[in-house]
Amino acid sequence: MTAVTPRGAKPQKALSPRNIMLYGALIIFSMYYLLPLYVMMVTSLKDMAEIRVGNIFSPPVEVTFQPWVKAWSQACTGINCDGLSRGFWNSIRILIPSLIISVSVAALTGYVLACWRFKGSEVFFGILLMGAFIPYQVLLYPLVIILRELGLFGSLWGLVLVHTVFAMPINVLLFRNYFVALPEELFKAARVDGAGFWGIFFRIVIPMSLPIFVVSGIIQVTGIWNDFLFGVVYTRPENYPMTVQLNNIVNSVQGVKEYNVNMAATMLTGLVPLAVYFFSGRLFVRGIAAGAVKG
Amino acid sequence: MKKTFALLASTSLISAGTAALAVDLEVTHWWTSGGEAAAVAEFARLFNENTDHTWVDGAIAGAGGTARPIMIGRITGGDPMGATQFNHGRQAEELVEAGLMLDLTDLAEAEGWRDFVNPTSLLDSCTIDGRIYCVPINIHSWQWLWLSHKAYEDAGVPVPTNWEEFIEAAPALEEAGKIPLAMGGQPWQATGAFGVMAIALAGTDAWKAVHIDQNAEVAAGPEYARVFEAAAQARAFAARSNVQDWNQATNMVISGQAGGQIMGDWAQGEFQVAGLVAGEDYSCLPGLGMNEIISTGGDAFYFPKINNPEVEAAQLELASLMISQEAQVAFNLKKGSLPVRGDIDLTAANDCMAKGLEILATGNILPDANQTFSPDTQGQIEDLMVEFWNDPSYTAEDAQRLYAEIIARAD
Amino acid sequence: MSSARRARDGARPPIRLLRNLSSKLAAIPMVLVGLGVFVGGTIWTIVHSFTDSRLLPRLNWVGFDQYERLWNTRRWLVSIENLAVYGIVSLVLTMCLGFFLAALLDRKIRFEDTFRTIFLYPFALSFIVTGLAWQWILNPEFGIQSIIRGLGFPNFNFDPLYNPDLVIIGLLIAGLWQGTGLIMVIMLAGLRGIDEDIWKATRVDGIPVWKTYIVVIIPMMKPVFVTALVLVTSGIVKLYDLVVAMTSGGPGIASEVPAKYVYDTLFTRQNLGQGFAASTMMLVTVAIILIPWAYMQYREKRQ
Amino acid sequence: MTNSISIKELKLAFGAVTVLENLNLDVGQGEFLVLLGSSGCGKSTLLNCIAGLLDITDGEIHIQGKNVTWEEPSKRGIGMVFQSYALYPQMTVEGNLAFGLKNARVPKAEIVQRIARAAEVLQIEPLLKRKPGALSGGQRQRVAIGRALVRDVDVFLFDEPLSNLDAKLRADLRVEIKRLHHKLKNTMIYVTHDQVEAMTLADRIAIMKGGQIMQLAPPAEIYNRPVNKYVAGFIGSPAMNLIPGQLDAGRQHFDTGRGMAHSVQGYDFSSAPVSGPVWLGLRPEHVQAGALAQSQPVQVDAYVDMVEPMGSDTQVWAKVGEQDVRFRMDGQAQVAIGDTIPIGFDPARLSLFDKKSEARL
To answer: In this complex, which of A22, A139, A247 lies closest to C37 when CB atoms are compared?
Structure first.
């Protein structure tokens, strides 16, 4: 067969009715999923005159990269006309510490809950899980107060803290489920070998947990990168992430809406998480199988 | 001129003689459309040129509804900006009461704001317990109907001169494939348009009874019934304008796709950016041509308290600059709004602006809804209006009944 | 598994609190977040929902006034109804579509990786991006409607974002587009966990494939469905960004949702008390869904 | 010389559930003790308590004369081998062996030396650079034993080490463990549910049930003189026939009341015999059938129900009266379903248990 290596029984004839239905369905659904990407792409490569007269599905008659250039470096918000570029670097500066801290905290907490339970740890876990269901809006205001009291409001670290807090429920759940499924005897062996809480974590557990770190990492990269609400509420304009900038550009209509620039900006904003998915999709599926399905 | 101004500003403000250190002053606002951005750039230019400080622009797109929560969050969260826009009125009331805003009274008295601010009611809405906390910077009046000459020429009917003619001409426009009334989908636009119709059709007294005395009986009465009927009519004429933002709607008028738009004078800036000439390419009818009046809404700047004398000095310099003659002229010409000073001569003002100034001079003024209602009441009215405008089966009677209920519990 | 001991003297039990000390130290973030933010923030919110706080929180009690007003507000009622409709439909469709796609991918097909990536990639995009893209496609002047009219069906109407009766469909199209990928991956992982022998057995027994899925496979995947259910439900309750990006609640108030009501009331309308009352009601709704589930889980553990 | 391991009044409870209670156990120096029982009997739990992997609720644990009740597992002087091998998958075999030594800050040169020695003993030198994933089950378990070996400790703990292996490997490695014990002469505690392992390896076997030790004795005694009905039924394959009936103490006569009755004269009563309901235990291999029955003190007739020829011997399911009795015959014996043949046995090799207390009479 191909490099895809499906398991089990041998494939049937290529054009059996079964296969026609199967691939037909797959292709129809693929069109639904690819349509927006296609429309965004072709629109971003047209100029406005062509957009006004043509239909949105037709490929560009004359390909122009001007919308991309404009979205990246010229689009205006108020009197700042430096496009998404500023937001891109802000997003990177927000993403890296938030990613590292939120994943580390979640992994460590999951490790405690899976391997070193103490009286009451399950109760706290329950509370944490409830947190996954609390609408963010409910906590926006209390968090303003908490950040104010900590003196972190408006700073990058305040935002990092917020991302860490809201990442905890679902990521801790993933890590805990994954760690619980690791063979218990490994922990016992390591303890007999004299490894303690941290020794086991760093030397035994982490090296075995690449898939779940990938899953958590991907969820966090997309979550943090795509966040709009926290970025806008808990930072100052000079720290605005790319999504906020995208929103600003899209909503700062000057005269007519420049759909091509909007689409280019939209695609630029989605580029980082998309790249992450395309490059680690396989690991993601594996990690999901290990972390989300069990327990 | 600039030099003298700067000198004057620095002597009058920094009395103790502390050397002014350069401060990066962050200013947040929600001016992001073409005309707005050009206007705010004037402030930034003057501030950077005339002082040692730097204007850090904190534009937040998506109108006041998006921007205000962020501003308030920052102020209450202990990370205040140097200065921030609010509308005239009650939006910042509680922030002032909580002691989060800088008291500008000394500056205002030293410069004699009360002598030149016109109308003085603008300064009153900055005043809480006798102290002044904000700088009014412009007057925006909602009371305009903008009309596209091109659209009416295409339809072969004369450009209307009042609301009644507008209604009469509407079918002709529809026949010509035009949308008689352009209307954005955002709630505040429906609410604003309704307010304009209320003043124009129900009359000043009824409007005052509802807005200032919060008289629910008047709101349920026959004068307002007329307004709701007219709104239902307007709704039908606006049914096909599938746009969200106000300036997209304005753009329909500019391009002649739509006959007219009820919108505040900020729309002026868009006509100007598009290179259209008032009186030739478009007309403007204050008070829908029925009741010529200017409502004195607009924007004011507040200066959150920052416990740093250097920043405070910079804030006061900015406050002083914003209300200065030079800045008022530069800003308002670009913005299409009216200046808050009675002592400047806007020779550069175009046809529509001049009309506004004239009405202002005659004293035919009313406060803005933002000044009379709390944001909460205003929000409830918006909910009602946006539903009414978008649902053709919603009757005028039902809407009026609910409107009266909101007025009855307004605060 | 149990605890790390710190005692120097192996003969004597260590102090209770110090047992498992590293673990307890490592749990501090969880305790702080759980108690400090989730519980603390929730209690704070509930307490203030009984006050007349406006722009700033203050403890001026007004009893149930805020709730009374809330349930007399048309926009809130519409929001609740929208969320219920959107929630149920999207829950059912997400699960069905997710499972269906996973089953297709599990049929030993070629290019599985490609198809899976296609179905999953929207999940990488934010709701803001999703909303903008679909807003553009569903725009009646440029999008599907105009294309189909151009193909010779001048009376074809499909403008869900401008039609109050259809706007939920517009949201669903975009929401499903964004959300089914993840559920598909979870379902696929579940399907892969099922023993190949089960398939052999059903083939020997001559049970048709579709029936095997319904009768044999789905019941075996209960834990997977529970995980998926939790993820989808928690996402639905928070539905906000998509609405803001696609419709801003319009046309009119036809696509308002509770989370947006909360946000608008809290921050734009500057009526904290009312906003907190609405968020408390959202919490209550979540609790009503969640408590039976948590109880079931607990009981299962006991057995 | 003190005991190698001494457990006093051990109690382990999780909340309201008591898992182990009043447990006392002494293990001599160099002794090979097997903890035997079916799953859930508490044998692994007890081993984990000894290892320090579970906090006990009450009692004391001494290893090599030192009270280690609250000591870290790594400081108890034990090595442990697990059922799933529990090798660290990301480390090489060498890394696995060195991990504990590094944690204990053993000098590098000595680590190398000890690994070399253990590898030699276990014949795993060629595997040292490989990762566990590249090893077979048998090899993995050798490495796991090696990991205990390099620790240079007095006590080895085995937690069902052979259960994951196939039958042949299991037998091989069993012999190897026995050889290892013979060579090293360490104290070993070995948990298993496999009675063959227990019988072949143990100096003494502790049979556990419900968190208690039922009988602690050398294998032969466990086999010949089980202290109660449970132990009797647990040890031996095929299992002992346990036949309910009445004991007449005076006549030393046993009667099922269902067609099987015979004398038990010659039975070695532990205490004065009392009449009443009893279980009679008769090991299948102690029954002589056919011609051989005549040599036995007690003889009855049996109706053959089912025959299982195994090659070396033949297992027969038969009825004595209405009572099922299972026994073995020589592999060459000619017997068919439906035959009635005489069977005989020696009451001295029987076991009698009180019906109520199930204790040996």
So the answer is: A139
